Write the structure tokens for this entry.
Amino acid sequence: MPERLTSNRKVIGTKQLRKALKAGRVRTAYVAADADPILREPLVEQCRDAGVELVEIATMKELGRLCGIHVGAACAALLR
């Protein structure tokens, strides 16, 4: 499933994910298990409330790599 993160229709990062959730544009959200819980937990709750599929990735470094960037990412999402 994470292979799909190479799509152009994605957002990377906490702010972008929150904006996309608010706009109802998120199809699948990806959250790094090692992300700061202060950032992670509210995002997980927002995704559940919105009925968005949520996928947990082991590390921020791995999520960043899957997104095609050279730094870690706490979260990312595929858009509708």
In short: Residues 2-79 form a domain with the 60s Ribosomal Protein L30; Chain: A; fold (CATH 3.30.1330.30).
